[in-house]
Design a protein that fits this description.
The chain is an alpha+beta fold and about 100 residues long. The chain has helices at about 20-35, 45-60; strands at about 10, 65-70, 75-85, 95-100.
Amino acid sequence: MTPPDPAILVRPATRADVPTLGRLGALLVGAHHDFDPQRFIAATPRTERGYGSFLGSQLDEPDVVVLVAERGSEVVGYTYAGIEGPDWMALRGPAGALHDI
């Protein structure tokens, strides 16, 4: 196992990170679509702004965490996770869900 890069700082995302979160989110949408275009939607010119807006709306939610990975002063990654309620399709009670990494 490779040791963690000490130059990477993981911290809570802020409003200033929203444009970068949108860019990274759009890249994630594109990667999913490239992997399986029948299952995942394609990124559009509006994806970056829309994804950033969505993640920005989640920053103050009490059951959600949006973290960024920063190298120097550049955000190079993010994660988005939250607590979800019961899911009868999955036959489970409330649980944490990691949505994006």
